[in-house]
Amino acid sequence: MRKNLRLTEIQLLVVPALLALVGMLTVILVPRKQVSWEAKDLWMPLVFIGLLLMTHLLLTRFLPRSDQLILPLVSCLTAFGLIMVNRLQSEQTGQIASRQVLWIGLGYLVFVVTALGLRNPMLMKRYKYTFLIAGLALTAGAAVFGAEINGARLWFRLGIFNFQPGEFLKLCLVIFLAAYLDDKRDLLQTPYKILGIPLPPLPYLLPLLGMWAISILLLVFQKDLGPAELFFGIFLVMLYVASGRAWYVLAGLLAFAVASVVAYQLFDHVQTRVVAWLNPWPEGQGRSYQIVQALFGFAQGGVFGQGLGYGKPNSIPEVQTDYVFAAIGEEMGLAGTLGIIALNLLLVYRCFHISLNARTGFYQYLSIGFAALLGLQSFIIIAGVTKLIPLTGMTLPFVSYGGSSILINFLIAGILVKISAEST
Amino acid sequence: MKRTIQIFCGVIAVGAVTFGLVYLPASDKQSRSDDIWLLSLLITGVALLIILWLSRPTPDARRRPVTPEERLRHSVQRVSSVIIVGFLLIALQLLREQVVSATDIEKPFTTTDPKGNLVTIQDPRSITQKLSNQRGRIFDAAGNQVAGIAISKYGLVKRTYDPNSPVKQILGYFSPLQFGNSGLEAAYDDYLRGTNGTNPFAILQRGILNQPTVGNDLYLTIDPKLQQVAQTALGQTPGAIVLLDGKSGAVLAMVGYPNYDPTALVFDPTVDDTLWPQEIKDIQTRWNDLNKDTGNLPLLVRPTSGLYTPGSVFKTVTLAGMMESGRTRPDSPWPDEGFYIVDNHKINDPNRPNKNTTWTSQQGYMFSLNAVFAQMGLQLGGPGLTDYSQRFGFDKDLPFDLATATSQSHNINEQNYLNNRVAQAETGFGQGQLLTSPLHMALIAAAIGRGDGVLPKPYLVQQIKTREGGLIKDTQPANWLQAVRPETANTVRDIMIASATDGWVGLEGGKLPGTNSVLGGKTGTAELGNGINNAWYIAWVSKGNRLFSIAVLVDHKAGGEGLRDAMPKANQVLNAALAGVK
Q1: Which of A314, A406, B69, B425 lies 20 to 30 Å (CA to CA) from residue B159?
Q2: Best CA proximity match to B199, nearest among B211, B218, B213
Q3: A388 and B112: CB-CB below 8 Å?
């Protein structure tokens, strides 16, 4: 009986619960400059704690032997997101906090439904082409029929909710790649020779390359380079893991370098990003305003930060989505930013752990794909806002404000938990 | 072999990061280009990848069968090493941006934007921080608050001044957003801001609790009564007055005219912020007006930074040099027929009180005889004049709480000037290329009045205290230069007394009757050509155990003559100073 109690998980869940409570109290009390509050001020963290408990109890009841770290790690990041969205809510942003709570609630629902309701995840493998076509079709549909926000057509407007099929496409691609590579793994691993010269098994790589090209094209035409980088990275990681050949990766990186140069020549917005990366200061009041404000924020943060509520992160435009990490850097300092990085690393490593214990090849590739997705996405956006690489717009998984992103990420977490429950 | 490569790569990685963090070239900091840093990060990343790559060799299928699990595990390990290196690089980038280079990033950056306009990029957050710093206050010697602060309900802080205090003209301006600081506000900025002199734990605590920083207070040596007398005495005459405590070097009064009111340049953040742009524009206009006024130079702090030809007051230095080197005694005779000719150059001497043609050294000083001092200048020669003026602080940086101009024995770009005999003669009586400041001349008077030949180190800030009154620093009097031996100083002191009793100074109203004091003084009228003159008076007066020394300068704009224009102003100040001594 004791074996089925998931004690590790419940102990670790204390951290995100306290984080949400204390963080929310700080955010509420700092502008008031006095220590007095009512219970209803704390409805958001209380709802959040309720969600944690419910999820925990359901997992205990139905999937007692599944992984116990995924939920606490994901919840910690979500708690950060909840605090920051409350902190950053202003007249310009509108009511983002209550919407974020709604998304988080739906996210946990999706998480539970996926983990408990997905009776046989192997079915996903069978429908791999369905996923691929659905993802591509939705993205293409958004590009043609969708709403244009900030100069890019990426969204479907569904009532109050803007759905971003690009997020869904990421998931579809990982499922498809995992299934496809699992089918062709033996072929990929045997050298393919023509006249004694070892070559990649081209007939089998071609569909992969085609799929990759289509998704990149779609995204380039949508002026959204971040997801293109991400897809490409996921693709290389999964290909490497399935084939075991490092030179595929090197060839891929070379192709990426060529594509980057071409994109730099062709697109103004790519040039803007590169200029802002190499030296944003001369245009600090023009094209590079956002990144310069973020750098000021980081510099103000120092080791322990200005303190939640005491910084001025709202001087960074769009801080609640792409630049939420800069807001954390300003108000929580190096301690906060390194904390977020550590949480992301742990999450990625937990995915690898699940992969190594997974029962089938498809599960292994799937969880490696999700590890690459979460790891690369957080790397690309964090490295972008810290000016380590040119910035490409993307959400920080579980932390940034945004409905589609949160739902898809919780869906991924749900699948991971289910896979871990299936493992030997 | 493998281990060697790994160690080598480790050294490269650590070296590249250290180089990037610590030794980044100043030019890079200037241009804020990150090329070199990013390159060092790239090198670090590659080196780390090589280390991790080598530590996990690929399982060799030719030696033994490799299971699929083993193959997967190996691939996953490699992917994770790439990911961990990536996040490590982010952590290094954050370390640099948030800690190591944070202060550089926060500095305002001036650059030309693509349209060619000059723009300053500044962090709006640091502006609020600067405005919420509770800057230290400044008090005069009587404990009156000269500069204070006013805090708005949003915690923004304004510099305030006592509108009636005569001391505010020497404080310097405080304009952290626009023009920076000057004067005491600049020299003691670290104390006034509270970064210096405050307990580091208190700073840390305020940081954590998000309390504004509290600065430390300055207590000046300026006596407000004497400062007021000096200011009234100078009035609207272009010039300067410096009154020192001759024993300690403490500045008791220091005025200059034209000057400016620092209140005009203070930004007031306590008003509604919609009014800020207009306010900044108004301050900018006033600043431009101050800078455009090249005729009056109101921003020039004349007592310390003004340089003027000393004229006859320099004869004190010449005489001390002659005595110190044993070239003359007070009663040594000199010929003077009302002029002196050196190398066909005629030097007029209109100062003789009668037609006598022989005068002693002492009389030469008492009646300010140019012919006598021209001969002394020739006897000292170029090296002697340079040497003795340098012993009195010429050509040396004058250490003080405010920026000071360096007095010169001759123009540094004309090394051979004092080899010329005419130049030696003219320098002997204070003309030539000599330049000095009122503060410096007051120190020279003090060195004689003390009778020990020591120029004290002048100071303006007596104490620095925390807001609660805890003592941080108490200035102790110190010596700057030992100019001449005490015996020489005493001899010159007696001659200065004679000058103030039976010389022109004494005869023309320089005595201070009824004060029961001992006075030594010397006037000067420096000729700048075309009938334009600087008027000078330097003096020291001792009573009881007090010694005051003073220098008064009347700028050539007011024209004038030492006896008529400078000396009466000094007498007003000295009388007021002596009134306070029992």
Answers
A1: A314
A2: B213
A3: no
For B:66-125, CB contacts with A below 8 A are: 68-69, 71-76, 78-80, 83-84, 86-87, 89-91, 93-95, 97-99, 101-103, 105-106, 109, 111-114, 119, 121, 123-125
Choose the most confident range, by mean pLDDT, from A142-151, A226-235, B305-314.
Answer: B305-314
Residues of chain A contacting B87 with CB distance shorter than 8 Å: 341, 344-345, 379
When computed from its CA atoms, the radius of gyration of chain A, rounded to whole angstroms, is 22
Dmax over CA atoms of chain B, in Å, equals 125
Helix (H) or strand (E) holding A104: helix A96-117
User: Per the omega criterion (within 30 degrees of 0), is the bond before A397 cis?
Assistant: no
**Chain A residues lying within 8 Å of B111, measured CB to CB:** 281-282, 284
Dihedral sign for Cα atoms in the order A154, A158, A162, A164: negative
DSSP string for A257-308: HHHHHHHHHH-HHHHHHHHHHH--GGGTTTTTHHHHHHHHHHHHHTTT-S-T
SS3 B480: strand
Q: Which of A157-161, A269-273, B280-284, B322-326 has the lowest mean pLDDT?
A: A157-161
Using the Cβ of A334 and the Cβ atoms of chain B, whether some distance falls under 8 Å is answered with yes
From the list B33, B71, B98, the residue facing A244 with the nearest CB is B71
pLDDT at B139: 96
> What per-residue confidence (pLDDT) applies to A245?
79
- How far apart (Å, rounded) are the C-alpha atoms in residues A52 and A403? 19
pLDDT of residue A217: 74
A197 pLDDT tier (thresholds 50, 70, 90): low
Please give the ipTM for the structure prediction: 0.93
- pLDDT of A264 over the 90 cut: no
Between residues B510 and B309, which one has the greater pLDDT? B309
- Any B CB within 8 A of A306 CB: yes
Residues 6 or more apart whose Cβ sits within 8 Å of residue A343: A73, A76, A77
Mean pLDDT confidence for B107-116: 75
Mean per-residue pLDDT over chain B, rounded: 90
Q: What is the mean pLDDT of residues A60-82?
A: 94
Q: Can you list the alpha helix ranges (DSSP code H) found in B293-428?
A: 302-305, 315-324, 361-366, 370-391, 421-428
Mutate to test the interface with A, among B80, B89, B98 (most CBs of A within 10 A): B98
How is the beta sheet containing B471-474 ordered, strand by strand?
Answer: B157-161, B145-151, B138-139, B217-220, B461-465, B471-474
Cβ within 8 Å, pair B102-A298: yes
- The proportion of chain B whose per-residue pLDDT surpasses 70, expressed as a percent, equals 98
> How many CA within 13 A on the CB side of residue B22?
6
B121–A388 C-beta distance less than 8 A: no
pTM of the predicted protein model = 0.72
CB B343 within 8 A of CB B477: no
Residue B465 has pLDDT above 90, yes or no: yes
Residues 6+ apart with CB under 8 A from B206: B212, B213, B214
